[in-house]
Amino acid sequence: MREDKRRGRDGGLVQIERMIEVTIDGAKVRVPEGSTLLDACKKRGIDTPTLCFAPNLTPVNACRVCVVELDGARALVPACARTAEPSMVVHTDSERVRSARKMVLELLGSSVDMSATPNFDVWCARYDAHPERLGTPSRAPTVVDNDLFVRDYAKCMLCYKCVEACGADAQHTFAIVVSGRGAHAKIATEFDVSLPDSACVFCGNCVGVCPTNALQFRREHELRVAGEWDESSQSVTKTVCPYCGVGCVLELHVQGDEIVKVTSPSDSSVTDGMLCVKGRFGWGYTRDAK
Amino acid sequence: MDLHSTHEQPTERERAVVDRALEGFAGEAQIPRDQLLPVLRAVQMGCGWLSPSSLGYVSARMHIPAAEVYGVASFYHLFTTRPSARRVLHLCDDITCRLRGSGAIKNRLSEQCAPEGEARGDVQWHRSPCLGLCERGPAALVVESGEHPSERAISLRSPEEAVSIALGGVSTSVASNNLVRQPREQLRLLRRVGVVDPSSLDAYRASGGYDGLRRAHAKGAQWVLRELGEARLLGRGGAGFPAGTKWSAVASNPARDKLIVCNADESEPGTFKDRVLLESDPFAIIEAMTVAGFAVGANKGYVYIRGEYPVAAERVERAIAQARAKGLLGEDILGSGQRFDLELRRGGGAYICGEETALLESIEGRRGEPRAKPPFPVHEGLFGKPTLINNVETLASALDVVLRGAAAFCARGTKDSTGTRLFCVSGHVANPGVYELAMGLSLRELLALAGAEFSRIQAVLLGGAAGTFLRGDEIDLPLTFEDTRRVRATLGSGAVVVIDDSASMMDVLRGLAWFFRHESCGQCVPCRVGTVRVDELVQRVRAKVPMGGWEQERQRLKDLGSVMRDASICGLGQTATSAVESAFERFDLWPDRHAKNNPESGRSSLPPAATPKKKGAR
Amino acid sequence: MWGSNARETHPIFFHHVLRALKNGANLYVVDPRVTSTARFAKRHVPVRVGGDIALANAVARVILDERLENRTFIQRATADFEVYQRSLEDYTPEAAQRFTGVDPAIVREMALDFARADRAMICWTLGITEHHHAVENVWALINLALLCGHVGRYGAGVNPLRGQNNVQGGGDMGALPHKLPGFLDVEDPVARGNYERLWGATIPPEKGWTLTEMFRAMEREELRALWVIGENPAQSEADAGHVRELLSRLDHLVVQDLFLTKTAQLADVVLPACAGFAESEGTVTNSERRVQRVRRALAPPGEAKDDLWIVGEMSKRLGRDFGQPTAEQLWDEMRTHSPLHRGMSYARIEALGGIQWPCPDTDSLGASFLHGRLWEEPVRGPRAPFHSVAHTEPAEALCEEFPLRLTTGRRLSEYNTGVQSGSISSPLVRDEALELSPSDFAALGLREGDRVRVRSRRGSVTAPVRVDPGLPKGLVFLTLHQPGRVDTNLLTIEATDPRAGTAEFKAAAVAVERCE
Q: Fewer Cβ atoms within 10 A, N terminus or C terminus of chain B?
């Protein structure tokens, strides 16, 4: 569980932040104790690719696309999960790092449909990754078993984020897990029953954290299938949920004159990026109840 | 968790089995999560499979979300979430057993019993990764579920026998009769094997048992730690980490609750030494753990034995009970005031659980997925407590250090590789088995002991599936950490698999590649996808059908190897290409580079009739 | 959590609770039902409907008997403690059990945990306030916080969880009969004078009517015209049959809403409005007093107009044209008069992601908790008084004719009368049904799929039935989410708290019989 950094303003629990210094690509960077190497990279202005990382979830460091080279460590280390320690010397663009990231991108791209993953092609270009050289993903079916969101298994890269959001990192519903092992591992409910038959409460927090769009709003899915999904034409407006008094911050994604998706910013002190079924899916009345 | 119950009610039998497994927790508000694997195992054994209704009931009794129970159950291959036959034969299909004819058995079982994995009446069989019975292969584990469940680890002498056993026949092979073929006076770790009754605590004590613990008590914990440090004992599980450093790290941790774990999840293909120790000298492990508990200040230990070792588990279980009955576990051990107790846990079938943090996850009742390190177990291990986790042989060696002192221990071996070491020799040798050698003797000397036919050696796989292939002309290599490292090889788990010129290297490699593909936990991308890509590549080479050109395939293998080594979470992924890459380096396996007489053109695995005959002990 | 099923009604607030649980906090859930919130609790405290005061008093009694009260805090910062202490005389957990139904051992455990905690918090919702003694209920809980000094400190306090996204903000802005914008008292001549000067108008010097008082005034025919903005009293008020009759008898009813609600259907004029959260600009204030911006993301459909525009036009046509100020201009005008909001410019709200009041100037970041003054030396302002409160039974006693207690509540995927949430096609939404305890279900000879008639002194409805093992014997449960299917408020009683004006939705006496 990450430390609640917001606490404190007048709460008396402000922790005195000790700063430590690490060297990243030859430059010294000072970060508060407890920061990760990813934080340090960010501070240094280095854009690090991440997929399984989310600021509002515990790092699982499963995708390995953020690996960096740490002097003294045998293998590369995941920047998202590795805590910065004083005097660490880190390389983020060495030959080993570039080649590992290239290969991770190729392994992913050769086994998962990454076409709806933001930045994936940018990273492939940056690291000269050609996923097709290792193979092409096999088509897994899209599961449509409710009106709120769909599961496009061809796009699932097993980043564990949905499992974490459903489970101990936020929602505590524990409706989905990783089942099976190795190449047969997949995100599943118990015995793969449909979501309506599972413990799912349809908060959609899994959808909110999915990095590859394997989990999609039903509406987004319909628009994508119809070839009408057009992110470039969409506006995103920040507002507040119209339901209970918690005041969850919503981001309304609007295409044309229609809300097509609702998210919440992960840095919101109210939501930490999480919503409930009403906040995430309860906007239909703006469309049809007039 | 939110309210959710599966609609199916458990059968009476399922309810009874689960209730019995949880008997000890009646009246407790929350049953500890770490009971999950024991309960799943009870259901598997008692009911034959983990049905939705049984898992639903486990979920309700233990307050674990149904999906999580399913996620755990579906991780371990000895658990099945589909209906299966009452009797299931797990046929070892790993490197040594393949060399010794498991292929023919596989074919015969398919023809005469059922297709692999399908239940036909009472009959069902599966291919299994290494069962750790390599000296007796081809081997199988026969599991019968029901009211009186049983597990038998057996040696199959012929396809006919395999069919008959699969159909319910009685196997004639002895449960465990571990032979040692070396002069007794050379032995330290194996000195009781085969001569001291492993079921008798009295026999153990009569043969010097518990002298080590007494000595530890007399000299004190600091002395034990110092001796261990001075002995420069390196871990025998594969990674070769200095044991003294680990012990001292746990000892110096100020936490009140600390734990000891014995890693007996011996699953490295070609490795069976820990099984021999557990089966034939179980009290030694208990004593060693008690010494460790004393030295580092831990009151509780766990022995995690892989699910495929029924005899070892049974003997250790009984040994623990005897030790407890005689006050050698529990309060005030030997009047020293030491409090220490042990619990036995069994794996559910997963190679990855030999990785220490995956093993800890498994004990805690979770999927065996390795943790990110740091934190290391010595700081934050089992249940978040500082944990000393050592391999069986390491613990046995540590006991030997305590018993005789660091100086005596170091008298054998080399400066950097002290003491003796167990080697598991299997494959094409006359006398497969466990051998104890002072470190520094050469591979040739070891192979001579095991009766290898030197002129026919094509390759030796050193260190298991995660190890390295050596050519027949490289066997003068001294068996030490430093010498193997020098030639970019590893002693690994001490597995030594001899492959003669009758075998196809590509068949062997396919077996290894399949193994890693089967055993990757799936958590990180390099390993989950990489093991599949390597397996596909090996298949293409074997079939001589490249994707693109051979040069591209070579680059691909190199790239896969480096990303898996560099970017996988744990040792499994980091070493998964080691053997395959070493084979391509040392042998002419690329179809476009075949020299004459290349091994690729060789025959496939020997039929069982050609298996070298066993000779008696020397 | 006292009388709150936050797991379902305030799910994201409950995420914060879950985080606290992970950090080792103890959760007690006081609720007559074993709710999904209760499943996360260290202990569910199954209080009888209406037994909250007795329970709180019993908790206090244990704390005092064990000498776990915070003497220093009581002496420094509170008033009327001795009277309070004496009022607890009869509330040993054993004696109170008659009213609370709670095992004294559980009361003791909760009391000790609460008193010994470094920081403790009491959160409640309608389980406390939808009673005819709502204010007394709240006082009983505040007493506990004062007793242990669990107030005015970070991580401690008393928290009513607001049920709607701007209940707090509406009140802060004067949508209460006794308040002016900025939560200033309408009967305070200085505050009133300031606004009168600002607006160039006269403000009635006495406080107005609460919602329930308005209905009484309609009964007396003193109130003849009503303008309803974004509210559906025809379905949301207790004793809905009577309410509808009163609305129909008005001379003139104007309803301003997004939907043609049941209330709008009774109206003479319907003014189509914009969806606050997506079609208009402004602010809302959440349960933690955090003022946040709502923004227009969609163009309103058809003739729908912004609330501000409608009010401006109404004013103009009533003879006073104040033009069409933007939401921000109005906000800035209010800030000049409200010290609580003075430092909250739109720009700062934007930059800080919301600001909690009080925020008196533009250097202030707002306060994350209130009442810190109680810990100052010397205490600034008045001391916090204890209120001695005594148990009273629900207005409607159970009797032979109406032997079952009906309590109402909410479910996760639904909201109030369903006008907004009706569009959510969550698989979790099931047809409304009367929920009964397994024993009542059996005693009434019911089977799954049966329908029953539920009668109260005020009306009757029919509904399908379901078993809820979380209900105690004698208690039945309905929501008001699906009035089209089950018009629950035909049954509820409008017995209201005289101070707060909330009706006793949580306790009606009903009879249930199987429909043949």
A: C
